Amino acid sequence: MTTTLFVSATREEAAHLPAGTDLLITGVGTLGCAIRLTRELAGREQLPDQIINIGTAGALRDGISGVFEVNHVYQHDFSSDLISQMMGRPHPNGRILPVTGRLPSARLATGDAFISDTTTRDRLAANADLCDMEGAAVVAVADSFGIPVTLLKQVSDNADETAATTWFEAVDAGARELYDALITHRFLT
């Protein structure tokens, strides 16, 4: 039997997972997420067979809605090109992820800012479809432990000036939509 650790930034985003689900709540943002997930995995006698990160994400273009499986993630607030130039060697930023094909796929930009303005949204949309605040950190930690990882993101807002209000209004319905996708597409049995 495959063991799965579900990782979510907030309890609200995981509110509809069944009792007894192996779930880690990391808090919001990349650093806290990385620390909590690393401590969790390092403290386990048996590592999970896979990690599934669930959570909400902002849409970087109009008309994007639903639940997506992330096929590429990068840290949008890390200047990898400049650092590569300064250091004289590559510092890659981004990871292509295998997907199951059970859900539509999307590219994800992760950073430590809640995106809530159209200028930033438009800039990020050049390289991503969605934005969040933990995905790249979950992938980095999972990779360091050699654990396969899947990112499932539900679009909660449009990453524009209405995003903060929209997120609070939409998070419970988003958690329900994530749960339904987990069941329907056999990520949770």
How would you sum up this structure, described in words?
The structure is a single chain. The protein is α/β, with parallel strands linked by helices and 189 residues long. The chain has a single domain, classed as Rossmann fold (3-Layer(aba) Sandwich), CATH 3.40.50.1580. It is 32% helix and 25% strand. The protein contains 5 helices and 8 strands. Strands 3-7-6-4-8 form a 5-stranded mixed barrel. Helix 3 links the parallel strand 6 and strand 7. The longest helix has 22 residues. The relative contact order is 0.23. One of its GO terms (molecular function) is methylthioadenosine nucleosidase activity. One of its GO terms (biological process) is nucleoside metabolic process. This is Nucleoside phosphorylase domain-containing protein. It holds the Pfam family PNP_UDP_1. InterPro entries: Nucleoside_phosphorylase_d, Nucleoside_phosphorylase_sf.
